[in-house]
Amino acid sequence: MLDRFAAVTVVALGALWGLYWLPLRELDAVATAGPWATFVVVAIACIGLAPFGWLGRARLAAASNRSLWSIALGGASFVLYSNALLYGHVATVILLFYLTPVWSTLIARFWLGWPIAGWRYVAIGCALFGMALVLGADGGVPAPTTLGDWLGLVSGIMWSIASTGIRVHVRTHPAETNFIFCVGGLVMAGLLLVPLAGDTPPLLAAEDVTRAVGWAVLIGGGWWGASLVALMWASKRLAPARVGILLMTEVIVGAISAALLTDEPFGLLMGVGAVLVIVAGILETLPLRWPFGRAKGGRPG
Fold this sequence. Notes:
By secondary structure, this protein is an all-alpha fold. The chain has one domain (2-284). The chain contains 14 helices and no strands. Helix 1 (2-18) runs parallel beside helix 13 (249-261) and helix 10 crosses helix 11. The chain is globular. The model is unreliable at 289-301 (pLDDT under 50).
């Protein structure tokens, strides 16, 4: 029963993060905050999670450096992703972030030395071809060109590294883990302020303060706080492959919502590219015993 609830939770949270760009852009529209928007919401999440970090301080102190660095790197990657949604096209950024089959396969094979099933090389081909269609849908060069594109791409690479480390090393409880996750995000958000927006926060009109605070608390407490704690809890109850498939709802909801609610281009080529990226994510999670042969020895990738 709990496993079924955990699966439903992951599906719902994927859909929720597929809509993350909506309140984030609402906050940016009210405050014209740019990267300050992400900085504030992650700071709110850190404050809300600080008591859990304090309660779990013994486990955090006993955790390995690799564990803590992996968690913090995950938070930093999400901050890059958050800023990418402000500077780039929503669907493109989400799909660039979800090029994880490429990076996770390369990390598993060449860094960790794990055996890799043949399907995962097919997944790399699907992901790269899908992104080429998305990035070249307007007739341009099929490569990242805008700041949002590059932030989305780098965030996905960082998340692949972080999620691999989290999978291998992390043993702390969900709430305290998310506290370190958000601390890592806050550090990255602070580092991005000067290059992206200067170090002076935006000045709000008096009538906009309440709306800005409301959106910031909703994003920081809802998305960065509660939803990530729930995701970390659910992920401990499910196989990593199943979690990866269920989280594909983020790509679907994000792409569809962007196509319906923004004036950003989303044509047939982008649709086909999105489907290929989703297929790549599913292929990455398949077991090792497939027509390409079964990898032997070591840890499965």
